[in-house]
């Protein structure tokens, strides 16, 4: 999921060519989807760090900033969730390991 989100966070041009073909028109890739994917990728990385690095600490301010980013990603998701690109992103979250090298 993390790798798929990282690829989608770069927008249409950051995707492997065989996935770009599914989104024939680069304009059909809404900018909000990049925000959602980037937030997913970043927050998952932070969660992994918090889980495995016992010296990692967040202040209340830092935690609130992460929560705000996630809340904004949910706002963005509401604006893009009905798009073809969003549907492809959701499938990519599940199928990325198979899709990325085709």
Indicate the topology.
Blueprint: H1 2-9, H2 17-20, H3 31-52, H4 60-80, H5 84-99
Helix pairs in contact: 1-3, 1-5, 3-4
Distance between the termini: 17 Å
Determine the strand fraction and express it as a percent band: under 5%
One letter per element, helices H and strands E, the order comes to HHHHH
**Helices and strands: which structural class?**
mainly alpha
Shape: globular
On the 0 to 100 scale, the average pLDDT is 88
| Poorly predicted spans | none
Query: What is the number of E strands?
Result: 0
Radius of gyration, rounded? 15 Å
What count of helical segments does DSSP give?
A: 5
Helix content: 55-70%
> Please, how many domains?
1
Reported for the largest beta sheet, the result is:
none
Overview of the structural elements:
The protein is an all-alpha fold. The chain has one domain (2-99). 70% of the residues lie in helices and 0% in strands. The protein contains five helices and no strands. The mean pLDDT is 88. The longest helix is centred in the middle third of the chain and has 22 residues, at 31-52. The protein is globular. The chain has helices at 2-9, 17-20, 31-52, 60-80, 84-99. The chain starts with a helix and ends with a helix.
